[in-house]
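Could you help me review a protein record that somebody else here produced? Do not assume that whoever made the record got everything right. The record follows directly below this note.
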Amino acid sequence: METKEIIKHALKDYQNITGLRSYVVYDNTVIQSASEKNYFCKCLKSSSKALKKCEECTEETYENARKIDHECVYSCHAGLIKWAVPVQRGDFHCVIVSEGVLAMKQMEDADKWAKYLSREYQLDESMLLKNFKVIQTMDEDQMNASIELLKDLLSYHFAMAEKQA
C-alpha cells in the first residue's frame, strides 16, 4: 500500500476515535490549510486576510515540525490550539496538521474572540461565535494523549502495511 494511503487510513481512524480531523502538508510549496474541514476555520478562511494568516501559520509550523522532526503544538492566529506531527518513511516526508481545539478558558471567552476576529477580518460576528462554540475543548492531558494516539495509529498502520507486503 502506498504511504499516502496508509496515512489516509490512520487519519480516518484518528477522526473516528477523537472526532478531530487533520490535513496533510506534503511540502511547503503547496500549503492547503483552506482544505481544513472544521466549520469555524472554513468560515474564518472566507476572508482572504485570514486565509493568508492561516497559510503563513501552517507554513511556519510545517517548517518547524520538519526541522526538529518532532510534533509541534501551537496556537494559531485565531486562538485555536493545534499540533503538527511530522511523518518520515524512507524518502517520503509530510506533516500532519490537526484540527484546532480550545481550552475551557478560551471557550469561556468565546464572545470576546468572535468580536475580535469579526473586526480583524470583517466577518459576521454571530457566524463566527456560532462556529467557535462547537470547537472541541481539551485540557493539556487530553491533547497530549490525542497527539500520542495519532502517532500510535500511524505506527500501527505502517506496521500492518509492512506485514501485508
About this structure: The first strand starts at residue 22 and ends at 25. The chain has one domain: 1-101+139-161. The mean pLDDT is 89. The radius of gyration is 16 Å.
